[in-house]
From TrEMBL:
The keyword Transport is annotated on this UniProt entry: yes
GO molecular function: protein-containing complex binding
UniProt similarity note: Belongs to the VPS28 family.
Subcellular location: Endosome
Claim: Protein transport is one of the keywords in the record: yes
SUPFAM superfamilies xrefs: Endosomal sorting complex assembly domain, VPS28 C-terminal domain-like
Residue span(s) of domain VPS28 N-terminal: 1-110
Name of this chain's protein: Vacuolar protein sorting-associated protein 28 homolog
Pfam families found in the cross-reference section: VPS28 (PF03997)
Occurrences of domain VPS28 C-terminal (ranges): 122-218
Organism: Fibrocapsa japonica
Gene Ontology cellular component terms for the protein in this record: ESCRT I complex
Length: 224
């Protein structure tokens, strides 16, 4: 009996298993850290710039670790981040929303509240970058790019730019459309593709949003 009790309990049978469980412990830590980061943002304990930088890093690490989950063939073991959180009873609603539902920092989805003063030159640059973002995303679709990993970076960056323009209307429809597409893309795996109807709808929404954006800029000029 004593020999059995003193026998070392091995959690892994080989180096590959050890590496896998090390990555899973890292995934657990990423989720917990994200939960604390989101709580800090909500309590204004961190500024937008530091939050966005840390959140981008955590989201990237989460996606890498989640990709490893999908390669595991162990019966009953979770195959994605949401199932992993359920399996280990991780009650981290803020992290689940950020990492799984949205997949981008909150600063990308919400209008900025930084105390920075936007001078005319800074705003003009943001507007130009936003216009370029629209054109780039539309060109990608016209070139028949449909995979999540091809389109998501364009939509994410475009959403980030347009939400940074402080003089746009509070309820600007193009921002809502971009947010909805960003959420939809982030629900897909990297290699998943939009079907023909979805690609057509996204291109239509981008074209319409771009036209509305240009009109909004013209109206802002007229008010000056």
């Amino acid at each position: 009996m004593n020999e059995i009790m003193n026998e070392e309990v091995r959690l892994h049978a080989n180096i590959q298993e050890r590496q896998f469980f090390t990555r899973m412990s890292e995934l657990y830590a990423i989720i917990k850290t994200t939960e604390h980061l989101e709580a800090a943002r909500m309590s204004s304990s961190i500024n937008d710039s530091d939050y966005a930088s840390a959140c981008h890093n955590l989201i990237g690490q989460f996606k890498d670790a989640e990709g490893l989950l999908r390669t595991n063939t162990t019966p009953g073991f979770p195959r994605d981040g949401g199932a992993f959180m359920d399996h280990y009873d991780m009650r981290c609603p803020l992290a689940r929303e950020r990492l799984i539902t949205y997949g981008v920092p909150a600063t990308v989805l919400h209008r900025r509240n930084d105390d920075q003063a936007f001078d005319a030159a800074a705003q003009a640059l943001l507007c130009a970058e936003t216009a370029t973002g629209f054109v780039t995303a539309m060109d990608a679709l016209r070139l028949d790019h449909r995979a999540m990993h091809e389109l998501q970076p364009y939509i994410s960056e475009l959403t980030d730019k347009i939400t940074s323009i402080p003089t746009l209307p509070a309820e600007f429809e193009p921002i809502s459309k971009l947010k909805n597409w960003l959420i939809q893309l982030n629900q897909m795996r990297a290699t998943d593709e939009l079907d023909a109807d979805q690609a057509t709808q996204l291109l239509h929404d981008l074209e319409q949003s771009y036209n509305n954006f240009v009109k909004a800029l013209e109206q802002m000029k007229q008010r000056k």
